[in-house]
Write a structure and sequence with these properties.
- The structure is a single chain.
- The protein is α+β, with helices and mostly antiparallel strands and 241 residues long.
- The protein has a domain at 139-240: Nucleotide Exchange Factor Grpe, Chain A, domain 2 (Roll), CATH 2.30.22.10.
- 56% of the residues lie in helices and 13% in strands.
- The strands form 2 sheets. Strands 1-4-5 form a 3-stranded antiparallel β-sheet.
- A hairpin with a 2-residue loop joins strand 4 (224-227) and strand 5 (230-233).
- The radius of gyration is 67 Å and the shape is rod-shaped.
């Protein structure tokens, strides 16, 4: 029992000695008081080797030195930097594209001009066809009426009494008939006493006649008719030898 008490006393003495040593290094530690957070712990002298290393590290970085600027990323620099060869290739590609666009634009322009010219020609042709159709739309009807005019003229050629009222009426009807046809572009031709024209006249015989040159129309058997300059029917005539 005495041995245990002596051992306990030794332990308490050792603990007391340790606490006294701590108070010698830091006077604030009294009666189990903790040091203030603002008070630095004494480090100088406790570990000389560590203090020397710290001072040496601090000397490597002098105070008030401005921070160095960060170097740009090498990958960004490589992406943004173009070699002269690459720039020339891109310029050549752009020039080729511009040239191709110019050719395509010129081709479209030529096609447009051709279409405009074709459409203009189509309008002119259509207008001409319409005009021709309007001129000769009644050609068939007028051609069928020409024998009626021939019959009226033959009837008047056999009249002996010019004062006959029937003959006068027939002559008036014939005159009105020819006037109506003339309004629609119909003209009557005979050519008696003129030179023979094979384009508008049809010779059915030749005859000698004194004091008359050859190939002259001496007799008209049937008159000819034109519609706006187009021959509807050629005149039937006898010409001199």
């Amino acid at each position: 029992m005495k041995d245990k008490v002596s051992e306990l006393r030794q332990i308490l003495n050792k603990k007391k000695i340790i606490e006294e040593k701590k108070q010698m290094h830091n006077p604030q530690i009294k009666n189990n008081e903790m040091p203030d957070d603002t008070t630095p712990w004494p480090t100088q002298g406790l570990h000389p080797s560590k203090d020397a290393a710290v001072s040496q590290d601090e000397s490597d970085f002098p105070p008030n030195q401005p921070p160095q600027a960060e170097l740009p990323d090498q990958r960004d620099t490589a992406e943004n930097t173009q070699t002269p060869a690459t720039a020339d290739n891109k310029a050549n590609e752009l020039a080729l594209q511009i040239e191709e666009l110019k050719k395509a634009n010129q081709l479209q322009k030529d096609m447009y001009l051709r279409k405009v010219a074709d459409f203009d020609n189509f309008k002119k042709r259509l207008s001409k066809e319409h005009e021709e159709f309007s001129k000769y739309a009644n050609e068939k009807l007028i051609t069928e009426l020409l024998p009626v005019i021939d019959s009226l003229e033959i009837s008047l050629s056999h009249v002996t009494n010019k004062d006959d009222p029937i003959a006068s009426g027939v002559a008036l009807v014939l005159k009105q008939f020819l006037s109506a046809l003339e309004k629609h572009g119909v003209t009557q031709t005979s050519g008696e006493g003129e030179a023979f024209d094979p384009n508008t006249q049809e010779a059915i015989g030749k005859q000698k006649k004194e004091n008359t040159d050859s190939n002259r129309v001496i007799t008209v058997h049937r008159k000819g008719y034109h519609l706006h300059g187009k021959v509807l029917r050629a005149a039937m005539v006898t010409i001199s030898e």
